[in-house]
Amino acid sequence: MLFFYQRMPQPLSPLQRVQLIKLVNGLPAGEFEALLFGLKPPDGTVPPSAGAQGNRAAVLLAWVEGTGGCGLDTFLETLNEVAPGIFKVQADRVPSLLALLPSIDFETITQAYRNALPQGRPRPIPNNLTALVKELADIPGEPDQPQPLARFVSVLSHAPAVSSEQQQTLRAWAEDQDMTLPEQANSETTENYLMIRVSPCAEGDPSSGYRLSAALITDPDPFAPETDWQSTPLPIPQIHPDAGSDYTPEDLPHMLSTLVIRCAVNHNLALADLTIQWFLPVELMSLPVEHWPLHLGKQQKPCNGQRCKAVLVRSYERQKPAGDYAAVAGDWRKHWTRFLDGHHHACKEALVTVKPDEGSTAIDWQKPSVIGCRFLEHRDPQQQEECWDDLFSQGLAIALWVRHQGADPKTAISIFKTVTQCPVKTLPLSLAAQRRVAFSKMAQAPEIEKLKAAPLSLLWDNPHRPFPTIKYESA
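The chain above was modelled as a monomer; its predicted structure follows.
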């Protein structure tokens, strides 16, 4: 039995017309005659019963919608009186769905679009919302698989970046459309992290060098405080045999490229699915980790921030149970919980401005909407360390900052305005998307620090996802 749904009258689409003619054609002869009696088309309009029933249905519908016809509403009402509950009228799905989507971040929508496409059939992402939804509605899908449009709606209705109210609205829309939404597998929310920890060989003495640890993490739900996440240690090769397992900051770009290759070769991970998390001591927080190149071919060496899903910075010091920030571990968790409770707040409201260059780094945590901060980094390296020490001592979990090279307060304000239009929960992906655009323009604008999003770094320090315990430092 066919079912069509509609909230207000509108012309039938070609597909709906074919389906409706087929349905009316299948009516028993008595019901078809009762339909004619109720509609009362002029004599001779519809062929006699001896004619082809299919032709009778098509001719009747043409009269209904034509000049002098009774109209589609009357036709449907009469049909439902003759055969109660046989169907409801359905509007074109595209306009009604489009009306629900403008408030959802386009990055979230494009991610759902990619997940909705049939496997092995990638397509370029349409450059506007209407084209994207129309394309999904037109894709036939695969046998015994959910239709791409149903999968798209299902992904959005479970997306962390979509508010619970919006999720419920999408599910209600699907129910109105008689659309069965497929269940979402864990892979829809699973994140893959390359965690790299940089620890001083001697505390308080950066000149002694650093040791590295690395692990690949599979996290089924990044926003669940308690979940069964998996970790796999990654071996660290020695690049200075005479120095053993000690490294300098200058070695880190090479080590990153080596570790990314291992994730791809040994664990079959695509760069677009890999988030890099750096656990850095305060004296290295200003390193331009997003700009370090990946060796992808003989000549291709793009920035990792251009090819990877996201690049995040975290604190090395507060990973230590008895470290300098142990006393504020509770504040750290409290502020992360506040983020989870208010993750749909706009970044421009949730991240307040602090001014290290003016000695102002205190955050007013009494305001319930405050989740973290944003700032322009101090030009003096010693002042940078003091700034991070002050912020970490407040239990800060999320911060967006502009590195000091080539930046000024006016430029920083412009950059923040561009990047912080999204909900705070989608900030890592939104920033990554804008950073890719900035990096793609490097050939036209060599002064990369002046590009929008290029000089930005993001502290995203989830206290429930510590660096895993592994049995080696470098090997």
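The chain is about 35% helix and 10% strand.
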